[in-house]
Write a structure and sequence with these properties.
It is built from 3 helices and 6 strands; from the N terminus they run ααββαββββ. With 115 residues, the chain is of the alpha+beta class. It starts with a helix and ends with a strand.
Length: 115
């Protein structure tokens, strides 16, 4: 059985496919200030698009802190991304995961690009 900590680490670490089995059919992914996705298929679609985008560059985590319990987990990350053109961005993000019966029912993501 996969723990909330393992699921949160996988998803926040862009290892989305490891987390897909733990997404509830009606999962909600709230990107604060950006919008909300509802449903496993919608979340998977965005994750797959993100993976395609990341495949042409690199992603490195400078900070990766996880706090997890049985019904919730939070991951605080600073990621350094370099795209195919060599453009660098530094992003600070925090993902909060809520679980019910071992499945992710809600993800709330806060992200800001750093200078």
């Amino acid at each position: 059985m996969t723990t909330p900590r393992q699921i949160a680490e996988a998803f926040s670490g862009h290892r989305f496919r490891e987390a897909y089995p733990a997404l509830a059919p009606d999962v909600r992914w709230i990107s604060v200030g950006e919008g909300t996705l509802t449903g496993r298929d919608a979340v998977v679609e965005v994750c797959e698009a993100t993976l395609r985008e990341l495949s042409s560059g690199t992603a490195e985590f400078q900070r990766f802190v996880v706090i997890a319990g049985t019904d919730a987990a939070a991951v605080d990350v600073i990621g350094r991304y370099v795209d195919a053109d060599g453009e660098v961005s530094l992003v600070s993000s925090c993902d909060i995961y809520e679980f019910s019966d071992g499945l992710v029912t809600s993800i709330t993501s806060y992200a800001v690009e750093l200078d």
